[in-house]
Amino acid sequence: MRFFPVVAAVALCLLSGCASIISGANQSVSVNTPGCEAASCELTNSKGTWFVKSPGSVTVHRAYGNLAVVCSKEGFGSASQSVASSTKAMAFGNILFGGVIGVGVDVGTGAAYDYPVVISVPLACGAGDTSANAAAAKPKSRMGIRVENVSQALASSLGLPDSNGVVVTAVQPGSAAETAGLRIGDVIREVNDIKLTDSTDLMIKLASLMDGAIVVTKIFSNGVPATIQVRLGQAGEI
């Protein structure tokens, strides 16, 4: 009969949220652009998007995937950095203390992962606003959409061969995406004949393009593959 207190303790632990010994799905990271202060930086992963002025700190949601960091400054263009996450050592200890449930909690919430505390983005700032810098200072391009990574379950339900790409979850009215015919539920598989792996990949690819650029986009819409052309809009669109 001694096992009943043990079972009760385990049940209480699960109900009270102590299946995980790792606290916090959020993490503070510092972003700097050496030699080019006061740059506007945008950080994106599968959990969301955050903004900060360099040098500065911002709290992000931890995730398994890379954190895309794009910094720009008027007159000096933009630069990007893709930062990989690492698994916390405590996540392995959770196998002992929290069991499989604890590990699942940490992986699902992102608490099992860490990004580097300091992120440096190599944005070059010259002495003045030359014509070359002025041309590079055009705003970062945007399609005007919000996206999420394609889960294996979604890929299977749509008949896709793999989970590469991103699924459109929102389309901004009047945006480049709406004009091109992108709709919620469409899966973007390729951009300019380059296959996408996830939302971070899309962010990095678009960061190198300027507003007005035409992007050949291969999508999967209503069960049918299609190719559309999107004329990119300006920063400020979602």
Biggest β-sheet strands, sense, barrel = 6 strands, antiparallel
Number of helices: 7
Query: Would you tell me the structural class of the helices and strands?
Result: alpha+beta
CATH architecture of the largest domain: Sandwich
Order of helices and strands: HEEEEEEEHHEEHEHEHEEHEE
Helix content: 25-40%
| CATH top-level class of the largest domain | Mainly Beta
Domain module count: 2
CATH topology annotation of the largest domain: Immunoglobulin-like
What average pLDDT do the residues reach? 76
Q: In percent, how much strand structure appears in the residues?
A: 25-35%
Total beta strands:
15
**End-to-end gap:** 59 Å
Overall radius of gyration:
21 Å
How would you characterize this protein structure?
It is globular and about 50 Å long. It has 2 domains: 20-136, Immunoglobulin-like (Sandwich); 145-231, Roll (Pdz3 Domain). The N and C termini lie far apart (59 Å). The chain contains 7 helices and 15 strands. The longest helix is centred in the N-terminal third of the chain and has 13 residues, at 3-15. It has helices spanning 3-15, 89-97, 99-109, 131-136, 152-158, 176-180, 199-207, and strands at residues 26-32, 40-45, 48-53, 56-61, 67-72, 78-83, 86-87, 113-114, 118-120, 145-149, 166-171, 187-191, 194-195, 214-221, 224-231. By secondary structure, the protein is α+β, with helices and mostly antiparallel strands.
